[in-house]
Write a structure and sequence with these properties.
14% strand; alpha+beta
Amino acid sequence: MKTIFRIYVVAVLLVVSGSKCLAQDNTSKALTLSDCFGYAFENSYDLRKSVLDRLESEAAHRENKAALLPQITGSVSLTNNIQLASMLMPGEFFGYDGDIAVEMGAKYNSYAGLDLEQVIFDANLFTGIKISRNARELSRLKEQMTKEELIYNIGNAYYDIIYSQKLLESNLLTLAIMDSIYVKTELQVAQNITREIDLNRMKVRISNMKVDIHKSLATIVQQKNYLKVLIGMPIGYDFMVTEQIEAPTAERIFIEDTHIRNRIDLQLLDREQTTASLEVRQIKNSYIPTLSLQALSSYNFEAQKFQLSNSQFWSNGTYVQLTLSVPIFDGGQKRHKIRQAQYKLQRVQEDIKQTEQNILGDRESYRALLLVGYNSVQAQHENLDIAEKTYQQGIMLYEEGLYSITDLLDTEKSFREAQTAYTYELVNYQKTLLDLMKAEGTLNTLVNNNKK
């Protein structure tokens, strides 16, 4: 037991030093898969950027809607004509012979007015607002897709860490057992009961196991760092993965049929199809006349001296203008733009058909793989039980002198391979389940189930 405890302490210290634990209390927090989801939803860089994209599209939609409201502009100006322009006038008007130069205008001019514009009818603008509304929904769906991809990647990364930790635990346990046998073998060699070559072979095996342990520790550090980046956790923080993977039960492999429209990527393509249709309509609407209203009211001041008073010259100007703009001929530009938009729409429709087939194919493939994975887990579990019993029996027979070192090392190797195979199939089953949930668009249920 002392040997096991010593090896375990060394392993923990290596993990802590490798992950650069910088927490002030020098402790690691245990994170479940649900904890990782929750942390990521608050701190993930990709998710934050997708939220900002959605907010940007919402602001753009509000900007487009604002074009329907009256546009009012106020303006004020003051002009000092330092040198007035002169014009030639017939002198007869002023009692002179010939033409004379006369300065025109006043030294000071001031202007203050309000300009109002209101769109009454513009089919192109109305369709543009619908396009921006659809773009807003697109950004919302992209945010959901980012969230689903985050769930999928976190699940895979989390299970990778569990797999590596399981291998590390089995290697540590086996090393402790081999270390104990090695000490006994040393005494037997000293008493000329056992050959020294057996001791050396055992020493080589122990040395290789220590190398594997160091590799596993380094792999765990790398996998943890990758998970930290995914969920937005600072690299300096440390955590422990303590969640255990349960063996699958028979009822879990039968997944209910779900509608493929749950897939976010299909919903995105539907929105892209709507946008493409609206773009075709928007270009066609450019053939429709537009009607707008404009009104202007202003005051003008003119004087030789800058003195704003009732005695100075003020004039008011007000007008209302109704403008009807009718497109007549554009050389066929709109017709070619419509064709481009129609080709884009057809391409999106083909993407939808292809994606539907891919989803159906993926779903059937992963369902088949899930069944295979379930059977593999069951088979490897039986193999592990047999290998463990054989290994324990081999240790007892070796200590009684009825088992050779070659046979013991072979059974130890078979036991470790059985442990690795079972752990691999167990984790692989969980990853296949993730793939199936992604294909069916039900990854969010993984978050809800882990909250319970």
